[in-house]
Write a structure and sequence with these properties.
- Helix 2 packs parallel to helix 6.
- It is built from eight helices and eight strands; from the N terminus they run αβαββαβαβαβααββα.
- The relative contact order is 0.17.
Length: 196
């Protein structure tokens, strides 16, 4: 379990911010419900790391998809505008966070990770421990509060822009006579889901 002093510092940081991103990495596998609970409580956008895309369902309203050089419009919007980044089970790697340059407005970081080195990234508040247990403990530290409605509207708009962008590729799957990557991924996803 995380150190109570670390949890207290993390809770205090969360209380100072209204534009929050929960950046989900591979170490968050199994903590999807806790991530959704924290995101819902504080109005945080949920940015999915490349190896954690299935930790939180894509239709969860605060899931903005991936960010970074191979990210989504909505994931990059949230990452660029957040003032607090809560990195859950992730590492700072250039493809998913552009070596932290993506977080241009973030003034604080909280890093929840089993690995103490990863928890110390970005001079953040380290919360060393299992993601699921740490999130449960952190939720118990936080008071109820109303999320920032302007931030939530911005997240919803960015999700709509990303959906429209993808829809255009689905409806026009050929560019220069070749299938686009979004069209191929959707076709494979549709096939897998129809076979399930």
């Amino acid at each position: 379990r995380p150190d109570p002093a670390q949890l207290k510092r993390a809770a205090e940081a969360i209380s100072r911010h209204r534009k929050i991103v929960l950046r989900v990495g591979g170490g968050a596998v199994g903590a999807g419900e806790e991530i959704k609970a924290l995101a819902s409580l504080v109005g945080a956008a949920v940015v999915m790391g490349p190896v954690a895309l299935d930790v939180v369902e894509s239709d969860f309203p605060l899931n903005v998809g991936p960010a970074g050089s191979k990210g989504s419009i909505s994931g990059n919007f949230a990452s660029e505008n957040a003032t607090l980044i809560i990195n859950v089970g992730g590492r700072g790697v250039c493809q998913s966070d552009c070596s932290a340059t993506l977080y241009c407005n973030a003034s604080e970081f909280i890093n929840i990770n089993l690995n103490a080195v990863e928890a110390a990234r970005y001079d953040g508040i380290p919360v060393v421990g299992d993601a699921r247990a740490a999130l449960r403990d952190l939720l118990a530290e936080l008071p109820l509060r109303e999320p920032d409605t302007d931030w939530l509207r911005g997240i919803a708009r960015a999700r709509q822009q990303w959906a429209a962008y993808l829809q255009d590729y689905y409806e026009h799957p050929l560019v220069g006579g070749k299938l686009t990557q979004p069209a191929v991924v959707k076709a494979v996803d549709d096939f897998i889901n129809s076979s399930a």
